[in-house]
Amino acid sequence: MNGIIIGLGYMGKTHLQAYASIPKSRIVGIVDANKAQADLVAKEYGCKSSTSLDSALSTCKEEGTISFVDICLPSPFHREAAITAMDYGADVIIEKPLAVSLDDAIAIVKKAEQLGRRVMIAHVCRFMPQYDYIKNVVKSEKFGKPLFFGAWRQSEVPGWSKDNWLHDRSKSGGTIMDLMIHDIDIANWLFGSPKGFAATEVGHPNHSGCSHVVTTLKYANNAYASIEGGHLMPDGYPFLSGFRLVCEQGAIEWNTVHNKPGSIVEYSKGNAGFVSMENETPANPYLNELNHFIHALETKTPFKVDLQEALLAVETVHNLLASMS
């Protein structure tokens, strides 16, 4: 199955490395505005390089049908690249979020529906075993009905984006869109469509595009979620994330400080139990995610991340932003 990757930042290179381990996928074209970088990486991976998606789709035809385009561009460019790929006849995977603006997100969804193309948004947390586990706990009501989901995700001020585009809220959507949408999507995945929204944001005088945000979401089943995220931790602070799921008859916790990778702790009926899931999925969640994407295209089975769910995540962020005003 032939594909093209557009965008050679951190995520584009991460995806490219993952595809190299998936036998049924073959990257035949790489697109990046930096021609020297595109040429260098293309030579390493034995594929063609281009500085535009249109050019790549044209020059890679001789390799056979282009089945998919993987979009790893900064968020404001998702719409244009996705529509170009779908107009060509390719299916698409887009690094989260679907888009920053609602108009762009809805346009991508409508184009996919119009052309019958398949689009998956790369919400990678859904491909990590600890999040998959709590999804099954909620679905099965293992500990009774869910009451509360709390999640947190924090990092130092981002310095890894090209030209620091993550510091520009008009491009990144701010910390709540770029960072917290991971956990907002998980909360919606667990509980459905939120009905109540509240958010508080703290900024920094020297980092206008970054902030620390605390949110509350209320759901129709009377469950609540509290999501906290921050891009304001000092230099050298490790990337930290975690969650707590509280149900009627038990609770589950996981975090990147105290737990081993792919493990959680369950508390119920006076007991605490360590649950390991390390062998259930590949250690690399990006590989797991892209394996799923290729398999779903090949077998014509549903994506784990439904396009409407990805749109809901963007809508939820905008509703939280509106609650701040």
From TrEMBL:
* Domain GFO/IDH/MocA-like oxidoreductase, residue spans: 133-253
Q: Supply the enzyme class, top level.
A: oxidoreductase
Q: Which InterPro entries match?
A: Gfo/Idh/MocA-like_OxRdtase_N, Gfo/Idh/MocA_Oxidoreductases, GFO_IDH_MocA-like_dom, NAD(P)-bd_dom_sf
Q: What is its EC number?
A: 1.1.1.370
Residue span, Gfo/Idh/MocA-like oxidoreductase N-terminal domain:
4-123
Query: What are the entry keywords?
Result: Oxidoreductase
The name this protein carries in UniProt is: Scyllo-inositol 2-dehydrogenase (NAD(+))
MF (Gene Ontology): nucleotide binding; oxidoreductase activity
The gene is iolX_7
